[in-house]
Amino acid sequence: MSTSKAPPGHFKILYFGPAENHTRKGSENLPAPLPIGKLFSTLEEKYGGIKANLLESCLITVNLEYVDLPEDENEEGIMIQEGDEVAIIPPVSSG
Amino acid sequence: MAKELQEGNCYVALTHDHLDSTSMINRVRSPKAGAIVLFAGTTRDNFAGKPVKELQYTSYEPRALQTMLAICKSVLENHSLTSIAIIHRLGVVPIGEESILITVSSPHRQAAWRAGEEALEECKAKVEVWKKEEFGGEEGGVWRANRDGAVGVRIDGDKEDKPAPGPHGPILRPKVLGERGHGPVVHLNSQQNGS
After folding, report:
1. What is the sign of the dihedral through the CA atoms of A16, A17, A19 and A21?
2. pTM greater than the 0.90 cutoff
3. DSSP state for residue B174 in the 8-state scheme
4. pLDDT (tens digit per residue) in B41-63
5. What's chain B's average pLDDT?
6. In a domain, B49, yes or no
7. Span B19-43, mean pLDDT?
8. Taking Cα atoms as reference points, which of B94, B90, B114, B116 lies closest to residue B103?
9. How far apart (Å, rounded) are the C-alpha atoms in residues B43 and B110?
10. pLDDT tens digit string along A54-87?
11. Which UniProt keywords are present, listed alphabetically (chain A) (predicted)?
12. How many structural domains does chain B have?
């Protein structure tokens, strides 16, 4: 995982554990702003099957804080801003 | 080098080095404490009978440290502890070595036992660390999930107990403190007896 910030007009997204397996990368930069409600469909376009196989069991953080995804697919929810750090948090397996 | 956070009588750390139980005991040692409980989680050589060659842990480190600290503060308060410390190892951990150490100190032993257990269960439910089990051979590694049924990538042939998924798949929100699928944690003996 690199610690560099996203370039202008982008946010950084981090993939951990099984998420990294799915995307074959630890992180990448995606265009910002992006409504959080569109995050899963954006990722599904890039990584077919990721939504059903992985994302639906994941939580999301924005700048280290857990955020709620809108329940209704038509709602956009909070806006991911340029420079934000978003992370896909699969079910944990610490210990 | 360990990454660590310290606040009041709470200490948390993530490290790629071997874990040292003596130093973790010393972190919570206090003249106010009559008991120190140490929990050491060690890496097992099999998963459901299948031999495991080694384990590998990765983490969202800044997020995991915050979660560990929040768990410490909550457990410290719930059990009126003197002090609490948690360290988790990352990277490759060979079989039989410690992957997590939790130490708690308290005036009396009952609170220390209970707090140690609660801290561990909370860690396993919430701390942003992921474990991959390497089985060796052609199969490659499998990401594990602590939640029953919330298996990582794929588990060939393993029939694990899966809870019935809700209308939106398994429920995967971080658990509320004390919520472990067996009802709330009941503190049977909240008065402190002499240790």
Report:
1. positive
2. no
3. P
4. 999 999 888 899 999 999 999 99
5. 82
6. yes
7. 98
8. B116
9. 27
10. 999 999 999 999 999 988 877 888 999 999 999 9
11. Cytoplasm, Molybdenum cofactor biosynthesis, Nucleotide-binding, Phosphoprotein
12. 1
Interface of B with A in 82-101 (CB under 8 A): 88, 99-100
The answer to whether A16 faces chain B, any CB pair under 8 Å, is yes
B172 close to A (CB below 8 A): yes
Known binder of ligand: residue B118? no
Q: Where are the domains of chain A?
A: 10-89
Task: State both tokens at B65.
Answer: 């440290």
Residue A47 makes CB contacts below 8 A (sequence gap 6+) with A22, A23
Query: Is A27 in CB contact (< 8 Å) with chain B?
Result: no
Of 3.40.50.150, 3.10.20.30, 3.40.50.720, 3.90.1150.200, which CATH number belongs to A10-89?
3.10.20.30
